[in-house]
Amino acid sequence: MDKVFIEGLEIEALIGIYDWERRIRQALVFDLEMAFDNRVPAASDDIADTLDYKAVSKRLIEYVGASDFGLVETLAERCAAIVLDEFDVAHVRLKLSKPGAVRGAKAVGVVVERSRVVAG
Ligand SMILES: Nc1nc2c(c(=O)[nH]1)N=C([C@H](O)[C@@H](O)CO)CN2
Questions:
Q1: Is pLDDT above 90 for 95?
Q2: Does residue 54 have an active-site annotation?
Q3: Who wins on pLDDT, 100 or 115?
Q4: Does the Cβ of 18 fall within 6 Å of ligand 1?
Q5: Domain residue limits, the chain
Q6: 38 C-alpha to center of ligand 1: Å?
Q7: Strand order in the sheet with 68-69
Q8: What confidence tier does 117 reach under pLDDT thresholds 50, 70, 90?
Q9: For the chain, what is the mean pLDDT?
Q10: Which atom of ligand 1 is nearest to the CA of 110?
Q11: Do 112 and 94 meet the contact criterion of CB atoms below 8 Å apart?
């Protein structure tokens, strides 16, 4: 299956389980791979036929910027659900990195892979 991807999308959010983390905003980095048949927009050359990575990015910027969770797991799950529920995406792989959260590590975080539940 083809993919549309977003790499290194940096968004500041209120996130973390420690007291000091409740008082600041921290930079998070999102990498997404979204299953999409790119043959259709390739044939039409029409943005309306694409999975518009700018539209997905804007939605995540809006959501994450206003979010307030303790765990990166919770935020990653909600973001994956937004992609599946609001865009024409059947499968998403989402990596959420929290740079600088652990001394000595470039980044820590989670990777989730979720598919849209098919009714019936
Ligand atoms: N699996 C997780 N481990 C940890 C998380 C998390 O969200 N998921 N969060 C923290 C703290 O908030 C940390 O980021 C502060 O440095 C610790 N472990």
A1: yes
A2: no
A3: 115
A4: yes
A5: 3-115
A6: 36
A7: 68-69, 3-15, 26-35, 91-99, 107-115
A8: confident
A9: 97
A10: 1
A11: yes
